[in-house]
Write a structure and sequence with these properties.
Elements (H helix, E strand, L loop, with lengths): L7 H17 L2 H9 L1 H13 L1 H9 L1 H10 L9 H10 L6 H25 L4 H31 L1 E4 L9 E4 L1 H4 L9 E7 L3 E4 L7 H17 L10 E2 L12 E3 H10 L3 H7 L3 E5 L1 H15 L7 H19 L13 H15 L11 H10 L5 H23 L12 H10 L5 H22 L12 H13 L5 H9 L5 H12 L2 H4 L3 H21 L4 H18 L3 H9 L1 H13 L1 H9 L10 H4 L8 H9 L7 H24 L5 H31 L2 E5 L2 E4 L2 E6 H4 L9 E7 L4 E5 L7 H17 L10 E2 L12 E3 H10 L3 H8 L2 E5 L1 H15 L5 H19 L6 E3 L7 H15 L12 H10 L5 H22 L6 E3 L4 H14 L2
Parallel strand pairs: 3-5, 3-6, 11-13, 11-14
Antiparallel strand pairs: 1-4, 2-3, 2-7, 8-9, 8-12, 10-11, 10-15, 16-17
Helix pairs in contact: 1-3, 1-4, 3-4, 3-7, 3-18, 4-5, 6-8, 7-8, 8-10, 11-13, 14-15, 14-26, 15-16, 15-19, 16-17, 17-19, 20-24, 22-25, 24-25, 24-26, 24-27, 25-27, 25-28, 26-27, 27-28, 31-32, 32-34, 35-37, 36-39, 38-39, 40-41, 41-42
Length: 968
Amino acid sequence: MITANLPELLQSQVADYWQDYQSKASPEMVQFILDTPSLRDSIGKVWACSPFVAKYALQQTQAFAELLRSGELLQVAEDCQARLTQYLASFEPLNEPLLMSALRRFRRREMVRIAWRDVAGWADLPETLLALSRLADASIESALTAHYEILCQQFGEPIGQHTGTKQHLIVLGMGKLGGQELNFSSDIDLIFAYPEAGETQSPRRNRTNQEFFVRLGQLLINTLNQITADGFVFRVDMRLRPFGDSGPLAMHFDAMEEYYQSHARDWERYALIKARVVAGDKAQGESLLKSLRPFIYRRYLDYGAFESLRNMKALIDQETRRKGLENNLKLGPGGIREVEFSCQVFQLIRGGRQPDLQSRHLLITLTRLQQHGLLTAEETEGLKQAYYFLRFAENHLQAIDDRQTQTLPDDALNQLRLAFGMGCANWTEFMTQLAAHQEQVQQVFSRVIAPVENITPDTEKELSREWQTFWLHTRQDDTQAIAKLTAAGFNQTEELLTHLQRFAQSSVVQRLSARARERLDKIVPLTLQLLAAEKHTDSQDYDAAFHRLLDLIEAIALRSVYMALLIERPKVLQQVVKLCLKSAWIAEQMTRYPLLLDELLEHRDLYNILNPAELDNALQAQLAHLPHDDVEMQMDSMRQFKRAHVLKVAASELSGNLTVEVASDYLAAIADTLTRRALSLAWDHVASKHGQPSYTEQGQRQVAGFCIVAYGKAGGIELSYGSDLDVVFLHDSHGEQQHTDGEKSVDNNVFFARLAQRIIHILTTNTAAGHLYEVDPRLRPGGSSGLLVSAFDAFLDYQRNDAWLWEHQALVRARAIAGDLACQQRFEAIRHEILCLSRDPEKVRAEVREMRLKMRNHLDKSTSEIFDIKQGTGGITDIEFIVQGMLLTWAAQYPHFTRTTGMLPLLRLFNEHHLLTSSCCDELSEAYRLYRAETHKLALQNKPALAPATHWERVRHNVQHWWTTLIE
C-alpha cells in the first residue's frame, strides 16, 4: 500500500523503511498513519524522495509520532518563534549545552515538517521558503536572547556612550535569509551591529561594547554552527560583513555608515538589497537599514549597476567552469543566480527613483518590474515559472539527505528521486523541462545584463577607430586633425581643437580613475562620430553643438553613473547629440541637471507627453514615496518633475510634433500642477504651526479659503521656456473672530501672508535641483507697496474704485489656477464683473496708447538693425494691447468674451461677431503666431527675443497698420 504508486527503482528502499518503522514504532502509531488518508497517501513519496525524513522517523520514533499527532504536518505553521520559545521553556534552567542540543532537535523536527509538506505537494514555494526563513530567524533570536542574558551577568550591561541607554546586538540577515527565501540546506549570511560605542557597567571590570558584542557574536555563531552529536542548526557565514574576514565581527552604527560611504564595493550594494533585521533590537536595526538605504539605492538611475553585475557574473562563470559546476542549479547557465541578477539589476538602477522596487522578495519585485514596463509580461511569467521550478528542484535535491548542494545528481537513484519529486516520469523529462526554463532565463538575462547596445555598424568600425585616434593623439596645432574636422563639416576648426585640448588637459580629466578614463575614451570618440554623422547644414550650429557636447561630458565625467549610462545605452548618447545640435537650451539643461539624461532612455517616452489632466496624478505618484515631512526632498522632486516634462515638450516642439500653441498649453499645465502642489505643501506647513484659518459668520465657524491667480503669460496659457509666473494671492476671510484654531493662533491675515511667502519660497528657492519659477506678485492691488495677500472684499473694492485701466487690462489674461474651488469661482466672478464694466471707447484707447508708450520707452531694445519681438513697435505687446483694449470696450455688450484669457481665441471671437474685419483678425493672429514661434525658437537657443529688423518688415507693418487704425 505504501509503495503502490512509486517507480520500481524507489519501491524497494521505501518498503525496507516501512518494515523497519513498523518494528520500532508502536502499533497504534502505525495504524494512525494508515487510518489518516493524507499521511497514508503521502508517506511513500516523501520517504522515496527524502531518505532524510525517513531516517528521522526511524531514529526518532517518539519525536516523529509527536509531530504526526500534533497536526502541524497538515497545516501551515505560522509562529515558529512562539513554538520554539515554548519548546525551550521545557529545558529550564537553560545552559549552553542544553541550548545547543534543544535547538538542533527543534531544527531537525521542523525541517522534517517543512520537507514533508514540500515533497508531498501540500506547500507552495513561498510557504516553504518562508517557513525555512522563519526557522532561521527563531533559532538566531532564541540563541541571541539566551547568550545576551548570560553575558550581561558576566560582563555587565553594555551602555551607549551618547544616549546612556542599554545596547543590544542587531543581527542582519543577508541573501536568501534576508529575502525570506531560504532554501532547504542553506548557509545563513549574517552581519552583526550595535547602535553605539561605550562600555559595560560591571562591578568588576568594564569592557568596551565592542568586546561585549564580539564575544556575544562568537557565542551565537558557535551555538548555531558547531556540529555536535545532534548535528548543527545552521552554517553561519560572516564574510559579507564590512571588510570581510579581516573586519571586526561586530561594528557600531557610525563605523558601519562610514564603511559603506567610503570603502564598500559594488557587490556590497547588491548584497544589501536583501538585508533584513532577523534578530535583536528590531527598531534600532530598521534605523540602521534606513541610514544605509542611500548607499544601496541611488537617487538617480544608476546604470553602473549593469557593469558591476556583469563583472560579478563573469567571475561566477569563471569559478563555475573551473570547478565544473555547469550542472549547478544556482550558478550554472540559466540558473537561480541569473534570475536574481535579471531582477536585482533593475532594483539597483531604479530603486532610488521607484521605491516600490526596494523589495527583498524576488517574486514581488518581478511583478513590479512588469508593472513599470521594465520586463514584458512574457518575460515576467517565464522568469517566475523558471524560478519556481529551479527553487523547487533545489529544495527537493537538498531534502534527499539534508545536504547543501545545488549540483544535479549523477547517479540513477537520486536522479529518479529528484525527477519523481518534481512530478516528472523520468530523468529525461525532468532535464527537458529544466533546459526549457534555463533557456528562458538565459534569454532574459542576456537581454537585460549581458550585451551593451551597439549603434555602430561593422562598416563604420574603421571610422570609429579614426575618431578614437583623433581624441587620444590630437595636438592643438595638428594639421591632420584640422583637416579631419573640416572634412567632417565643422567650421571653426582651430577653436574646436582648442576646446578639445583644454578639456583633455582639464583638472576634471586628470582626476579620473583608470576605469573612468577608459569610459571617457569610449564616449568622446563616439560622440564626435555621432555628431559628424548628423551632417547638419548649419555649420555654426554644428560647431556650437561640438562645444555643448564637450561641456556636457565634462560636467558628467566624474559622475560614473552617467558615463556608464552612455556606454550601456549608446542610443541615449545618440539622442543627446541630436538634442544638443538642435537646442542650446536643452544642452544647458542637461549639463546643469544630468538627471535629465534619464528621460532619454526610451526614445518613444521622450515624445510621449502626458495629457495635462494626468499631470497632477503623475506628480502625486512621484512624490508619494517621499517622507511627508521632508519638504526639501519634495521640492527637489518637484524640480525634477518640471525639468523632465518641460524637456519632453521642448523635444516635441523641436521635432515638429507640437505647435507653439499646444506647447504653451502644456507648459502652462505643468506650471499649474506645480503651483497647486506648492500651495498644498505650504498650507500643511503653516497650518501645522498655527492651525486652520477660520472666521465666524452668523454664529457659524467657517474655514477661510484661499486661491492663487495667474496673470500674464501663465494666465493667458501662453507660457514659454523660462517664463516667470505673475501671481496674485486672495483669501475670503471675513466676519468676526478671524484667526487660526491652533495652539499658536494668529490672525488670518498673518496666516495668509506666511502662506504666500511659503509658496513663493517653494517655487523660487534654489536647491540642488535648481528652482521652479521666478515669481512676480507685483500685479496685486497697490503693487509692491500693497499687501501680499488681499481679501476678496478689498480686491473687489480696489478693482471697482482704485484700479488703473492697465490693471483691468491685466485681468484679461488672469485665471485662478490653485486653491479652494469656491474662491476660484469667486475670483472668476469678480474678473467677469470688472471686465464687463461699461467704458468710454475713446478713453480706453487714450489710456492704452499712454501705457503702451511708457512701456516702449522703458523696455524696447530695438535698434535700426534689431527688432525687439516683444516690446518693439509692431511687436507682441502691441497685439496684446489691441486685443485687451477691444475687450474692455466690448465686454459690456458681449459678456461671454470673458470666458477666455488667450489672445488668439479673443481675435476669433471678434471676427465671429464682426467687430473687427477678417483681414484684421487674420493678420494680427498670423503675426502673433509667428512672433510666439520665433520667441520659442530663440528661447530654445538661449537667445533673447531679438531678431534682424529686415526679416519682420511685412509682419510689423501689418501690426502697426492695425494699431494706428484701432488705437491711435
